[in-house]
Amino acid sequence: AALQALKRKKRYEKQLSQIDGTLSTIEFQREALENSHTNTEVLKNMGYAAQAMKKVHENMDLNKIDDLMQDITEQQDVAQEISDAISSRAAFGDEFDEDELMAELEELEQEELNKAMKDVRLPSVPSTSLPSRPGKLLACHLLKRAEDEDEMKKLAAWAS
C-alpha cells in the first residue's frame, strides 16, 4: 500500500508539473495576444495621425514658408535698426570732454571732503588709567547682560 501511495504521489507530481507547464503556455499566449492587440491599435492610431498630418500639410508649400520666414527675419532686422537708431545718444551736449568733467567732479568732491574733515573734532584721551584686571570688567559686563535679559523675559511674560 505504501508503494502504491508513493507511485500515486509521483504520478500526481508529474500531472501537476504538466498542468503548470500548460498554464504557463496559456499565460504566455494570452500576453502575446494582448500585445498584438495593443500593437494593432497603436498602428491604427499612427495611420490616423499620418493621414491628419498629410491633410494639414496639403495647403502648405515649403517655398512659401521659406519666403515668409525670410520676410519675418528682414522685418525683425529693420525693427532692430530702428530701435538702435532711436536709442543711440544724440549729439546734444557732446561739446564737453567727459574725462575733463569727471576730473573736475572728483576735484570738487575732494575739496568738499577736505572741508568736512577740518570740522571734525576728535575726542580727548581719557586721563584715568585703564583697569588692571580686564577679567573683572568682563564679568561685570556679563552679569549686567544677564540681568538685562532676565528683565526682558519678565517684561515679555508680563506683556503676554
Question: Can you put this structure into words, describing what you see?
Answer:
With 160 residues, the protein is mostly helical. It contains four helices and no strands. It holds the Pfam family Snf7. One of its GO terms (cellular component) is late endosome membrane.
Strand and helix map with partners:
Elements: H1 2-57, H2 62-87, H3 98-118, H4 134-159
Quick summary:
This protein has helices at 2-57, 62-87, 98-118, 134-159. It is mostly helical and 160 residues long.
Order of H and E elements = HHHH
Q: Give the termini separation.
A: 92 Å
Query: How many runs of DSSP E, i.e. beta strands?
Result: 0
Query: What summary fits the major beta sheet?
Result: none
Shape: flat
Radius of gyration: 48 Å
How helical, in percent, are the residues?
Answer: over 70%
Q: Give the amount of beta strand, in percent.
A: under 5%
Give the low-confidence spans.
none
Structural class, from helix and strand content?
mainly alpha
Question: How many H/I helices?
Answer: 4
Mean pLDDT: 86
